[in-house]
Every structure is written in C-alpha cells, then in structure tokens.
Design brief:
By secondary structure, the protein is mainly alpha-helical. The protein has helices at 9-13, 17-29, 33-46, 56-75, 87-97, 111-130, 151-154, 160-165, 171-181, 187-191, 219-226, 242-255, 266-280, 283-290, 295-299, 310-313, and strands at residues 198-199, 202-206, 212-216. 52% of the residues lie in helices and 4% in strands. It holds the Pfam family Phage_int_SAM_1.
Length: 316
C-alpha cells in the first residue's frame, strides 16, 4: 500500500483508520518530526476536546514541544512506540536542568516552560493513541513540579508604565494598549476587534474557545477607538500579526524609558484586573470582566496591596 504524504492536517485526519495508523507508525518509527507534528495537529483539531476551536497559540506551542521531544527521544534511545516507563520522567528531568536560552535570561528553563513542553509531549502520545499507533503513556506518572513563585510576582502588572508609554504610541498602537490595559482584552482578542463590535460604551469580545462576552469601555478607550477608521472591508481595526505588534510595543516602551519593564501584553491585562479589583474588592466581577471561567484564574491576575487588611485587623 502506498500512502500519499499530505501537508494538510485535515487531509491527514481524513485518512482511513488503517492508513492513519500506518502513517503514524511510520513517522514514529523513523523519528519523522514534521510528520509527527502533523499527526498531533490533526488530533488536536479533530479529535481533542476543543477540536477545531483549539487556538493557534496552543497548536504552535505543542508543535514546538514535539519538535523538541522527538529529537531528544532519538538521541537518548527512546523508542517512541515502545517507550520505557521511566522515559517520561527522564525527559522532564532533562528539561528542568536545561539552560535557558531566552533573551537576557540566565539559569534553567522556567517551570512554566517545562510544563508547556511536557504538555506538548503528552499531546503527541494522545495523538498516537488516537491514530491507533500505540497505547503507550510514558508521561502518565511524570511529575512536573509547579513553580513556587506566583505568576503575579514573576510577571506583575504594568502600573504607571501604561500612561508613560501611551504618548510614544501612534493612535492605533495606543488604542490596542488601552484595549488590553483598560478593557482587559487578551492581545489576540484586541487584534480581532471590528468596528461593528463597538456598541456605545460596550464591546462584544470574541474570546478563547469561541466564548463571547460583553465588556464595558471606559471613556479613554472609547475615544481612542472612535479615532480609528476600519482597515479592512469587514471592519477590522488592526491588521498586525502578533509578532509585529509586539515589536512596535517594545519600541514604544524603549522610547518611554521602560525598555527593561516590557514583559509582553499579559502584564497589561493584569493592569486592568488589578485596578478593577482595587475598585470593587470582588474577584467574581473581575473574572467576568476578564472572561475567566474560574475565580482561581482571576486571582493570578490581581496584585494585592501589601497589608491590604491592616485596617480590618487593627482592632482584633
């Protein structure tokens, strides 16, 4: 039987069960990294819980993890279809001791990065089981220790930096920053905003997993958005890709004298969560504003003031 190799994950998913199994076995037996990336993506978009709603960011992160794990497995004598029961733990240990190669970073990979790589490797084995290639689960007992440092400490919210940086942004970049820092949008949500999503002081946000929420817009955000003419026939206000807007925002932070403070757009989203919590003292309301399904997630977006309960305990 001759299989036609396809670069399309959907075409791969449309193979018969026998053809898919053969393709997956062939890829795993020969350590064909790119073919295994395709198998993983085919599973994620057609066989996983989220299916076609799996975000592009998740697919990219898992693909990166597969591209890391497969060469490691080949170098370290791991048979992908018949891994040893300790091989998952070996990979985790190697990740934990691997030097960080990030810009300006020292030490070993962060716990979050280790967890992301392991999640991608686990997804690969779910994909191989989905394809009928193996029943192996080498990461079933592999423990990934959590990071003892809270995310809000490692990546705190921007505070005064927002107002310092805005004068160094053009109108469109300033509106994007305000959408993240004042309206609490994820940067991917902000980049997809259309003029028709704005209804007075409310914004319809199309979020992760196809969820839709209504977000109130403050005066500064409304003013910034009303200054922007649509850029596309369907009314989109931004045409940037993520890497493009990240580069532009980094330059704006540098111009404002905050080059060392740039920590990505998530710190801007935490800015909105922190300010709203300080105004409301209500994690539930903040979580609804940010589009979180769990208040536990919201807690990671709020920087609490030191001695926040000093007045309450004064007369204990």
């Amino acid at each position: 039987m001759t299989l036609v190799r396809s670069n399309g994950t959907l075409a791969l998913a449309n193979l018969t069960d026998q053809a898919l199994r053969i393709r997956a076995i062939e890829a795993a037996s020969t350590y064909d990294t790119e073919a295994l990336v395709q198998v993983t993506q085919a599973y994620m978009t057609t066989g996983s819980r989220k299916g076609a709603r799996t975000s592009a960011k998740t697919l990219s992160a898992y693909s990166l993890a597969v591209r890391d794990f497969v060469p490691w497995a080949q170098t370290n004598g791991v048979q992908l279809l018949r891994p040893g029961r300790r091989d998952g733990g070996r990979y985790v240990a190697q990740l934990q001791s691997r030097p960080s190669q990030g810009r300006g970073k020292t030490g070993t990979l962060s716990a979050a990065t280790v967890a992301q790589y392991v999640a991608g490797a686990r997804a690969l084995y779910r994909a191989l089981r989905w394809a009928g290639a193996t029943e192996a689960q080498p990461f079933e007992d592999a423990h990934v220790p959590p990071d003892p440092t809270p995310g809000i400490v490692k990546n705190p919210p921007y505070m005064r930096e927002v107002d310092d940086v805005l004068p160094h942004c053009d109108a469109r970049l300033a509106a994007l920053l305000l959408l993240c820092a004042h309206a609490g949008l994820r940067v991917t949500e902000a980049l997809n905003v259309k003029g028709s999503d704005i209804q007075g002081a409310q914004l319809t946000v199309h979020g992760k997993g196809g969820k839709v929420r209504r977000v109130p817009l403050g005066r500064r955000v409304r003013t910034a958005l009303h200054r922007l003419p649509p850029l596309t026939p369907d009314g989109r206000l931004f045409e940037w890709q993520y890497h493009q807007v990240q580069y532009r925002m980094r330059l704006a932070f540098q111009a404002a004298g905050h080059s060392l403070a740039w920590r990505g757009f998530h710190a801007a989203r935490k800015h909105s969560g922190t300010r709203l919590y300080r105004a409301t003292k209500d994690f539930t309301r903040v979580g609804l504003f940010l589009g979180h399904s769990s208040v536990d997630t919201t807690r990671r977006y709020v920087a609490l003031e030191e001695n926040d309960v000093q007045n309450e305990v004064e007369d204990f």
